[in-house]
Amino acid sequence: MSEVPQPAVSQATFTPMAQRFRGYLPVVVDVETGGFDWNRHALLEIAAIPLEMDEHGLLHPGQTHSAHVIPAPGTEIDPKSLEVTGIVLDHPFRFAKAEREALDHIFAPVRAAVKKHGCQRAILVGHNAHFDLNFLNAAVARVGHKRNPFHPFSVFDTVTLAGVAYGQTVLARAAQAAGLHWDANEAHSAVYDTEQTARLFCKIVNAWPRHQLGG
Known about the structure:
The chain has about 220 residues and is of the alpha/beta class. About 35% of the residues lie in helices and about 20% in strands.
């Protein structure tokens, strides 16, 4: 598949972050869903964290943005998925948003971060990242959203990175191998999994030998 054409980036705004990832801004995303089929099952939670870079070129997680999502009309929910995630759809404090509103809530700060870093667009970072991207793309298609900041098919996947770095592919085990605390009671919420994935990605990338960059 050919690469999607990218808009030109002004050299005046070509920041270290834009240089580090060829004009892409890594944004860590996790979704919780009503099942495994993105064409059929509902999007129920989404969280996103645009990454930041310090003066030494090291990555760290930025601000977390999240939304609970009202199941879109026509989508399905497998009760077994709710057992795993612990999501209570009619909880009085869930404060869920309609799918279009939830996407707007996530996309606006991502677009702002892309602009801040002089990047061309966001690239999704996730654990089994194409699962998250496929659900995101399905929601975008359902609502006809025209301002999706994410690359439509390219991702950074921490399953692959953690497998190379630590020999672990399960998020909990990879996080622990990286020296991160893991709370099993908090897992399977979009916010917690996104924050842990962000920490994992940053730790792996920050440890990569600097002399191999560039060129």
